[in-house]
Design a protein that fits this description.
It is a single chain. This protein is mainly alpha-helical. The protein has two domains: 64 residues, no CATH class; 69 residues. The protein contains eight helices and no strands.
Length: 155
């Protein structure tokens, strides 16, 4: 991890710490001038809090390095043309809950396409491809739900 990321992670830890504001400001000032070795020691000392905020940090890093403006534009375009993106949260982070929602929605949309194709002559090959796609999505959904059940949660 580079020094910039270490500083950012240290600032996240200070921000989440339950200490008075004055102490937080002092810690943030010391982080500004800290060496890489000092930052690593700070992270080792605060390992428990680090484990707690790591998901928030990863999200912030992915948005900041990936270009949140480009991501927002991409999601806006998808939402304009895709019902499932709208339904499952246009600007929501790509969590497991959102993935499950997208899978369920895509299964329903594909099933509607299959139902519309039934009875049309010459569309059997397309219908078989769509049915295979539905089966794959159902397998993925079962896998998500099995992992959720193992953790004791539901989607």
């Amino acid at each position: 991890m580079d020094k910039r990321s270490l500083k950012l992670l240290s600032c996240f830890i200070v921000n989440e710490a339950k200490v008075p504001t004055k102490k937080k400001l002092q810690l943030l000032e010391s982080i500004k001038v800290a060496s890489e070795k000092e930052l690593l020691n700070f992270l080792k000392v605060n390992e428990a809090l680090l484990q707690e905020i790591r998901p928030k940090f990863k999200t912030a890093m992915s948005l900041s390095t990936g270009g949140s403006l480009g991501w927002a534009i991409y999601r806006k375009i998808r939402a304009k043309h895709d019902i499932c993106t709208k339904k499952c949260g246009t600007y929501e982070l790509n969590t497991v809950r959102r993935q499950v929602c997208m899978l369920r929605c895509n299964i329903n949309e594909t099933q509607m396409m299959i139902n519309a194709l039934k009875g049309r002559h010459g569309e059997e090959s397309r219908m078989h491809k769509l049915q295979a796609r539905v089966e794959k999505m159902k397998n993925d959904l079962r896998e998500y739900e099995a992992r959720a059940k193992a953790r004791g949660t539901e989607y």
